[in-house]
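Quick one, C-alpha cells below:
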C-alpha cells in the first residue's frame, strides 16, 4: 500500500540552519509577532521573513495559509514558507496548515520550525494526509525522485511524538482506504480485495472469508443475486478486533461496521450509461472505509471490540445475471422484488447487516455505502447523508464528524416512505422511484435492523471519491469516514 511520509520530531536546534537544504517552514500568528526561531531566520535572510509578514498578502491570508519566499539570501534552503497560524489554533486550521506544507514540500526535504506550536500533531496529520499520491500504475511518473522525509523541530518532541503516533495510524488507515478506492476493477477483484484484508491478520485482526457456498448455506440470496452475473466469486469478509481484552469492557459485544463492496458496478441488466461508468471502480467505497478503520484500530491498539464486515461482489450483465422482476429471499427471510438491478448495494448490505446482528448482537451498527446518486443531488460533495434510528448514536457520530472535519448531515426516516417500497408480488421492492431516492434506500435498509440495534446508514456516494482536490486529499479517493469513525469509537466505545 501507499505509505504515509515519515515525519521525525526533534528538539529545536538552530545551529547549522544556514546550511539546511530543501525547504523550511515557520509559523507566525496573525498579529505578526516573530518567535525566536523566526527572528533568527529573519536575521539570516536579511529581513526577508519580516518583509513577508508585513506584506498585504500575509495580511489577507487565512489561517493555515502562508507566503512563500523563494531562494532567500543568506541560507542554503531553496524556499521558506511563512505560515499564518496561531500558537493554539483550531484543529481544522492546524490540519489545513499541514496540508499547505505538504503541497509546499513536494518530494524534497522539509524542515518545520514549530518549537511552541500547540497543535503540532494536527499539523503533522494534515501534512501526512495531503502528501498522498496514487501512482501505482504510472510507468512514466511525472516525478520519480524518492520522497524525502520531514523534520519537525519542537520544544517537546517526545510528547509530540506520543501525541502524533495514533494520528499516524489514522493516516495509514486513510491511505489504505484511498488505495482500495483508487484501484481499477481489473486489479481489485473480489479475490484481491479479500486477500488484502486477510493480510491484516499480521496486525492482530482476526479475519474470516466466507465463500459463496458459505453464503448460500447462510441464506444470503439477496447478496448472491447481485454477483451471479460475474466471473468473480462473491464473498463476505469478517474482520474482528478484540482490543478490549483485559479491560472493564472486555465482555461487551462489538460495535459493528458494515461496508458495501461492489468492486465494479455496471448496473447489471439495468445497464448504466457509458459516460462516467469508469468511475464505478469506487462503488466499493463503503467496504474500503470499513477496512481503513479496522486497520487504524489495529495499528493504534484501540481498547475496543469492533467487527468490520464487508460484502464483496461485482455487478455484471452476464447471461446468468439477475433480471429486473426477479424475486430473491434475503437472509432475514423477507422477499424482495428486484425492480432495478442497478439498486444492488442495498441487496448486498441487507444480508450482511442481518448476519452481523444474528452472529454478533452488536452494541451498535453503522453501514457505509456509495448507495445513491440522489444523495449527491441533495448534499453535493461536501457531506455524507446520515440516516439513523437512534438520536444518541447519530448525535455521537455527528459530533465525531465535526471534530475531524468530515462533512455529514442527518436526513429523515419515516414510515410514510414505506408505501413507496410496496410490491405486488413480494414483501418489498428494492427501489421506491425517483422521489426521495436516498431516503427510500435507507428506509429499505431499516427493515433489516432489529429494534434493539442502534444503527446509522451513511450514504457516502458524494464524498468517497471526488474529481478535484479537497483540503486534505488530491483528486480521487478521499478516505472520508475513517477519521470520524475512529473518533466515534475512541470517544464512545473504547476503554479509557
Amino acid at each position: 500500500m501507499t505509505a504515509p511520509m515519515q515525519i521525525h520530531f526533534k528538539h529545536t536546534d538552530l545551529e547549522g540552519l544556514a546550511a539546511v537544504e530543501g525547504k523550511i517552514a515557520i509559523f507566525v500568528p496573525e498579529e505578526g509577532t516573530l518567535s525566536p526561531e523566526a527572528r533568527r531566520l529573519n536575521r539570516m535572510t536579511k529581513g526577508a521573513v519580516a518583509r513577508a509578514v508585513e506584506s498585504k498578502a500575509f495580511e489577507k491570508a487565512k489561517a493555515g495559509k502562508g507566503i512563500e519566499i523563494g531562494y532567500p539570501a543568506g541560507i542554503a534552503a531553496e524556499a521558506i514558507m511563512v505560515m499564518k497560524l496561531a500558537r493554539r489554533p483550531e484543529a481544522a486550521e492546524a490540519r489545513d496548515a499541514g496540508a499547505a506544507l505538504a503541497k509546499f514540500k513536494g518530494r524534497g526535504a522539509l524542515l518545520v520550525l514549530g518549537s511552541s506550536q500547540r497543535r503540532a500533531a494536527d499539523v503533522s496529520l494534515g501534512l501526512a494526509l495531503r502528501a498522498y499520491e496514487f501512482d501505482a500504475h504510472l510507468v512514466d511518473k511525472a516525478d520519480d525522485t524518492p520522497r524525502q522525509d520531514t523534520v519537525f523541530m519542537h520544544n517537546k518532541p517526545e510528547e509530540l511524538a506520543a501525541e502524533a503516533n495514533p494520528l499516524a495510524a489514522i493516516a495509514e488507515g486513510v491511505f489504505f482506504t484511498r488505495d482500495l478506492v483508487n484501484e481499477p476493477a481489473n486489479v481489485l477483484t473480489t479475490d484481491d480485495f479479500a486477500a488484502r484484508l486477510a493480510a491484516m491478520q499480521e496486525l492482530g485482526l482476526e479475519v474470516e472469508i466466507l465463500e459463496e457456498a458459505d453464503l448460500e448455506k447462510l441464506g444470503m440470496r439477496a447478496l448472491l443475486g447481485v454477483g451471479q452475473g460475474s466471473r468473480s466469486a462473491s464473498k463476505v469478509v469478517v474482520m474482528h478486533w478484540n482490543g478490549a481484552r483485559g479491560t472493564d469492557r472486555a465482555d461487551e459485544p462489538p460495535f459493528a461496521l458494515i461496508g458495501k463492496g461492489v468492486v465494479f458496478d455496471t448496473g447489471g441488466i439495468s445497464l448504466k450509461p457509458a459516460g462516467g461508468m469508469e468511475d464505478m471502480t469506487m462503488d466499493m467505497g463503503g467496504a474500503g472505509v470499513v477496512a481503513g478503520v479496522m486497520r487504524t484500530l489495529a495499528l493504534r491498539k484501540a481498547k475496543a471490540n469492533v467487527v468490520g464486515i464487508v460484502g464483496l461482489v461485482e455487478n455484471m450483465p452476464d447471461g446468468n445475471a439477475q433480471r429486473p422482476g426477479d424475486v430473491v429471499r434475503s437472509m432475514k427471510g423477507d422477499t424482495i422484488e428486484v425492480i432495478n438491478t442497478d439498486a444492488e448495494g442495498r441487496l448486498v448490505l441487507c444480508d450482511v447487516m442481518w448476519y452481523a446482528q444474528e452472529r454478533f448482537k452488536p452494541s451498535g451498527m453503522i453501514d457505509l455505502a456509495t448507495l445513491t446518486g440522489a444523495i449527491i443531488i441533495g448534499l453535493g460533495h461536501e457531506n455524507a447523508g446520515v440516516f439513523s434510528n437512534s438520536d444518541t448514536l447519530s448525535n455521537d457520530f455527528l459530533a465525531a464528524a465535526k471534530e475531524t472535519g468530515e462533512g455529514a448531515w442527518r436526513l429523515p426516516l419515516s414510515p410514510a416512505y414505506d408505501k413507496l417500497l410496496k410490491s405486488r408480488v413480494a414483501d418489498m421492492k428494492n427501489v421506491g422511484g425517483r422521489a426521495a431516492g436516498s431516503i427510500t434506500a435507507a428506509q429499505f435498509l431499516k427493515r433489516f435492523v432489529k429494534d434493539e440495534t442502534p444503527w446509522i446508514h451513511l450514504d457516502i456516494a458524494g464524498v468517497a471519491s471526488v474529481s478535484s482536490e479537497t483540503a486534505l486529499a488530491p483528486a480521487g479517493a478521499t478516505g472520508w469516514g475513517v477519521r470520524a469513525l475512529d473518533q466515534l469509537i475512541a470517544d464512545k466505545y473504547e476503554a479509557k
